[in-house]
Design brief:
The protein has five helices and eight strands. By secondary structure, the protein is of the alpha+beta class. A hairpin with a 2-residue loop joins strand 1 and strand 2.
Length: about 180
């Protein structure tokens, strides 16, 4: 699977290089500033018909996406969306009644921290985003849940109250790959 992902990434990267090298000069400057109106317009009129480009959205003024690849400006890594799932997302904290007898240690053996999630259907170390709620924040699967929670994602929060406040939501999660050179 890793080789397939790498091949898909290489094809998308080549496409992205070709696309960005053909962007008119005024739009290239806009890529640096992330002027979403001009980029979105250019993608819809020039690229979308042939490359099925995603509409560009820049929530943090540093992200542009083209057909599943996220181009992060400001010297940040190139991130590819590998797969998208719609699943229930819940929250937990480090309390014995929610975990086991070692509430501050994850199933991977690491200490809990911000950005940790538990998921049984994804391999340990998988990086995900939950854009609807957390934008471009990257979470890492480093914990597991009881077997009955086979297709759910559980986000770690520092307090039980924060976990309760988050509740249970049906959301899309993106499995991502960091393609930094």
């Amino acid at each position: 699977m890793k080789k397939t992902i790498q091949k898909v990434f290489i094809m998308r990267l080549i496409l992205a290089i070709l696309i960005t090298s053909t962007i008119p000069a005024h739009t290239s400057a806009a890529l640096i500033d992330i002027n979403t109106d001009s980029i979105s317009s250019w993608l819809r009129t020039k690229i979308a018909p042939t490359a099925l480009a995603d509409e560009t959205k820049a929530k943090n003024d540093d992200l542009a996406t083209i057909s599943g690849l996220a181009f992060i400006t400001s010297g940040q890594p190139l991130i590819g969306v590998v797969k998208v799932y719609e699943t229930f997302v819940t929250a937990y904290s480090s309390s014995v009644d929610e975990t086991d007898s070692t509430p501050f240690i994850t199933a991977s053996g690491k200490r809990v921290r911000d950005g940790i999630v538990a998921a049984n259907f994804l391999p340990m170390g998988t990086k995900i985003r939950i854009p609807e709620i957390f934008g471009n924040k990257v979470f890492v699967v480093e914990d597991r849940m009881a077997r009955r929670h086979a297709e759910k994602v559980d986000i770690w929060f520092p307090t039980k109250q924060e976990a309760k406040t988050f509740g249970r939501k049906k959301l899309q999660i993106e499995v991502i790959e960091d393609f930094s050179l």
